[in-house]
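> forwarded from #structure-qc
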């Protein structure tokens, strides 16, 4: 079999089995334009990236949106899990929490006060402080991405059951 034919066959098999890229989201039309109220800039940026990837848009006004997501009690913090003999932190737990309410364009509240909580632990090597600061930022970004995916999955499910 020629290499090009092999690639075509593999691509068709992957498409037939439902394979899709990690993070790929199929949004309903009502969720293509979203207004995010009360969220941090970091959460807004993650929402913008996800929506841009599926031809969606984070609007600047609630009137232009199909749904409004009201974010409340957004907290991003850390706590020490273990200390070294010198009293420095060896292990840290990062956590991110928020509550959100989903309101459709017609003002109907679909989801109210749903919590999202994500925790991550990581080893804090005191010998490489600069790299650990970068690692912590990468972990926090991944936590925000996961929070966005959780919220969008719940919202898609609630909008799908709301239509039935």
């Amino acid at each position: 079999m020629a290499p090009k034919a092999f690639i075509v066959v593999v691509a068709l098999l992957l498409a037939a089995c439902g394979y899709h890229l990690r993070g790929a989201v199929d949004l309903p039309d009502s969720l293509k334009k979203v207004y995010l109220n009360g969220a941090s800039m970091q959460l807004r940026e993650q929402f913008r990236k996800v929506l841009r990837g599926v031809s969606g848009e984070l609007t600047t006004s609630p009137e232009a949106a199909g749904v409004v997501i009201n974010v409340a009690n957004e907290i991003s913090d850390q706590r020490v899990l273990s200390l070294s003999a010198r009293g420095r932190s060896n292990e840290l737990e990062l956590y991110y929490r928020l509550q959100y309410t989903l309101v459709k364009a017609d003002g109907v509240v679909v989801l109210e006060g749903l919590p999202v909580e994500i925790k991550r632990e990581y080893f804090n090597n005191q010998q490489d402080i600069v790299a650990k600061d970068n690692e912590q930022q990468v972990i926090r970004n991944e936590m925000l991405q996961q929070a966005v995916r959780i919220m969008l999955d719940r919202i898609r499910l609630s909008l799908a059951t709301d239509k039935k």
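QC bot note: Residues 14 and 21 are 11 Å apart (CA to CA). The domain at 27-163 is CATH 3.30.160.150 (Double Stranded RNA Binding Domain).
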